């Protein structure tokens, strides 16, 4: 797969199919991007599990923090990686040990590791690199257009409503 660009339908398909997301590198610091993404995804009705060994056993936004993916008490549909690219191979190793395997490994803005992505894809896991699910959700749902940002997505269709505060669903092509 070409990870330099993604079709909107690929991203929309992922965001419409996942329900439970583990955020590796989640921070309790309310000025960190991982905190904003966790808060946003919770508001959109996703179940989000923070992963951060330094805060294991504590809570972020009411969600219990786990030390590693191996400690997860439930299966997850997506693993969102908020760590440096050099940490991705080890995280993908942990992902590949999960049973059942998640549907998606998502690497945040600035995070890319092609070899680790290829290993995940070989196991049947979809991969997104150098993208943010918060931004992609906002773009594909039309929310980002509320602030005057050109999302490149036009539609005359009425938005789908999802659970959560002002939560428009992602449009499927």
TrEMBL record:
Cited InterPro entries: CoA-bd, NAD(P)-bd_dom_sf
| Regions crossing the membrane | none
Which residue ranges does the record assign to the CoA-binding domain? 14-111
Q: Which SMART domains match?
A: CoA_binding
Provide the coiled-coil residue spans: none
* Name of this chain's protein: CoA-binding protein
- What is the organism of origin for this protein? Mesorhizobium humile
């Amino acid at each position: 797969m070409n990870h330099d660009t993604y079709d909107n339908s690929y991203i929309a398909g992922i965001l419409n199919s996942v329900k439970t997301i583990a955020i590796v590198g989640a921070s309790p610091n309310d000025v960190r991007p991982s905190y904003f993404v966790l808060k946003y995804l919770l508001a959109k009705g996703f179940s989000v599990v923070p992963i951060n060994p330094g805060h294991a056993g504590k809570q972020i936004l009411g969600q219990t923090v786990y030390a590693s993916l191996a400690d997860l008490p439930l299966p997850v549909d997506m693993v969102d990686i908020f760590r440096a690219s050099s940490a991705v191979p080890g995280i993908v190793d942990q992902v590949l040990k999960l049973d059942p395997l998640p549907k998606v490994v998502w690497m945040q803005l600035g995070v890319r590791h092609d070899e680790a992505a290829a290993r995940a894809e070989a196991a049947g896991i979809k991969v997104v690199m150098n993208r943010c699910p918060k931004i992609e959700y906002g773009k594909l749902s039309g929310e980002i257009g509320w602030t005057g940002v050109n999302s490149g997505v036009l539609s005359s269709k009425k938005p789908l409503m999802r659970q959560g505060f002002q939560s428009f669903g992602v449009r499927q092509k």
